[in-house]
Design brief:
Blueprint: H1 2-20, H2 25-37, H3 44-60, H4 62-68, H5 71-89, H6 95-101, H7 103-123, H8 126-153, H9 156-176, H10 186-192, H11 198-203, H12 207-234, H13 240-264, H14 270-287, H15 295-309, H16 312-318, H17 320-323, H18 326-357, H19 363-384
């Protein structure tokens, strides 16, 4: 029985690679894609908005889906649709065609995110949530690495085909793993994902603060992943491939940060890890003002930014199980992610508009400013929630 449960945990981890693989493809290849499709730098904001608008719709409706379907089926369909969407996008000759096929890409990402985050927060200890999100980091690191290689040797289109094919392989693995999953009865699903009104969610102590933390954090992560390559390409005049590797540096550090978060969770509380990550992000924002000749110095600064980003999302997600009743968890997680996606789909395109119309040289100021806002919100949230402890029973603890 324990062996089956460990195998299932591995399948869940690998499924989160599928969530990360497509996320940094567009940002790392955008300078090449926009040249091929003959569109401007700021058009990336439109693409980002469409993908994350669909993610928001999917995420908001995830508790309803989880009442109707088992987690395994939602995850399988989502990964499969994402893989197909990427392969089709590799063949487009018009930016508007690319926008259309981005619709299933966003919907698939939202459904995977909510269903697996809720499953882990409800059933596993904090370190497993950090490890889960480190697999997202693996996906989001491997994606731009594949893209950098294909742009250097063939074209961005081969990168999309390669990643899409990997996702279809992961979908097949999910399908094969169905017998490993615990049966989620209709009655169980109805109880765990009870209908909670928006008003009731808003009136829950600390819920709005947590939602705004996710908004700011996700915006910082998207600023780092989507725009860091363009910043170094335009301001530091690196090549397409070298700029893409700065995206890789960020996501590699994010992955390492999440792995370290899982290891350190044996000694440190999730709240402490969140604070450490916030301080590292602010430090990276300040260091970006340094002007040097060596690209290795800039790569190190980006690495610090990624390392700081690592522990925040998984530990913020996990402490939901401390602070909120079980019946409210999927609704609150859904709202955290819906508003969080606005960090990608609204704030990041607005930043892109600013960079397009003014200058992307202001990029470090954005990182520092949002880092400061986030740490203020985090300290306030932890203070408000310090006397609450609704911790759910964790039924699996496989290390």
């Amino acid at each position: 029985m324990k062996k089956k449960a460990i195998l299932l945990l591995m399948v869940i981890y690998i499924s989160f690679i599928a969530l990360g693989l497509p996320d940094a493809l567009l940002g790392s290849a955008w300078n090449n894609i926009r040249s091929d499709l003959k569109v401007s730098l700021g058009t990336l904001g439109i693409m980002t908005f469409i993908v994350y608008l669909m993610s928001i719709i999917s995420t908001y409706n995830a508790p309803r889906l989880l009442r109707l379907f088992e987690t395994k089926r939602i995850t399988f369909v989502s990964v499969f649709l994402t893989g197909i969407a990427l392969i089709i996008m590799s063949q487009v000759t018009s930016f508007y065609h690319m926008l259309f096929f981005a619709l299933p890409l966003g919907m698939g990402a939202g459904a995977i995110d909510v269903s697996l985050n809720h499953y882990l927060a409800s059933n596993y200890k904090a370190r497993h949530m950090s490890y889960l999100h480190s697999f997202y980091g693996i996906g989001v690191t491997v994606g731009p690495t594949i893209m950098a290689y294909t742009m250097d040797n063939t074209s961005w289109r081969i990168g999309y085909i390669t990643v899409g094919s990997i996702l279809l392989g992961i979908a097949l693995l999910m399908l094969i793993s169905f017998p490993l999953w615990k049966k989620e009865s209709k009655e169980n699903r109805s109880e765990e994902h009870a209908h909670i009104t928006l008003k009731e969610m808003i009136q829950t102590k600390g819920s709005l603060l947590s939602v705004f933390i996710f908004l700011i954090y996700v915006h910082i992560e998207s600023l780092s992943g989507v725009w860091v390559a363009s910043y170094f390409y335009i301001i530091k005049e690196t090549s397409y491939a070298t700029a893409a590797l700065f995206t890789t540096s960020y996501y590699l550090a994010l992955t390492i940060g999440r792995l370290l978060s899982g290891i350190l969770s044996y000694r440190l509380k999730p709240q402490t890890l969140i604070k450490i990550g916030s301080i590292l992000i602010i430090s990276a924002g300040m260091l970006m003002f340094i002007n040097v000749e060596s690209l290795w110095v800039y790569a190190t600064i980006v690495f610090i930014l990624g390392l700081g980003s690592g522990p925040i999302y998984p530990n913020m997600m996990f402490i939901n199980s401390f602070y909120f009743e079980k019946k409210k968890m999927s609704k609150i997680i859904s709202m955290q992610m819906v508003i969080g996606y606005m960090g990608f789909g609204l704030l990041t395109p607005l930043a892109g508009l600013f960079f397009d119309q003014v200058s992307i040289s202001f990029y470090p100021i954005f990182i520092l400013l949002y880092g400061l806002i986030m740490i203020i919100l985090i300290y306030r949230y932890l203070h408000v929630m310090k006397d609450i402890n609704y911790i759910q029973p964790q039924i699996h603890d496989y290390t």
